Amino acid sequence: MKLKQDFWVGWAIGAIVLSSCWDQTTSQRQQPDIKREISLRAVPLDKTKVVMGQTVYVPIYSHIYHYNSQDQVMNLSATLSIRNTDLTNSIIITSVRYYNSDGKLIRQDIKSPVELKPLASTDFFIAADDTSGGSGANFIVEWVAEKTVYDPVIEAVMISTSSSQGISFISPAKVLKQHKMQK
Questions:
Q1: What is the mean pLDDT of each run of 10 residues along the chain (183 residues)?
Q2: Which residue in 58, 71, 144, 161 has the most C-beta neighbors within 10 A?
């Protein structure tokens, strides 16, 4: 009788654990898409009204080498973060493109110009199991503004928590081209 009772208690605990894990995983997968739809609104772009902007390069490391060998790699997940630092004015993100180590375009995340409101931020994710970029992957981000604004903070965060090791680091953007102000 005690064995039967222990079986049912164990089964109930297992069911609760599994259902709580399933609910978390499902909600985590849906959240980023909902957030992006809310925070990034497509906007028309009148190039004659653009007063400033930049094209920036952001290094992404989808893996790094370790243990004294290029045969030993640690896959990393990467998050590209774009943060509008202006207190009152929006910026317009016109392009977010992901390239591999050979300079080949892997994907384009922004299809048309989108608004990033004052002090808002958005991100673009590369999963650890997505090795298409290689160790020399990068994002090219282009943004413009119709008013003078503070430059956004654009950087990538790479992380891995595989096995019992953990590693994380950031990779800042490098400005490739500064769009001149119109007079």
A1: 56 54 45 53 91 97 80 89 98 98 96 95 95 93 97 96 83 94 59
A2: 58
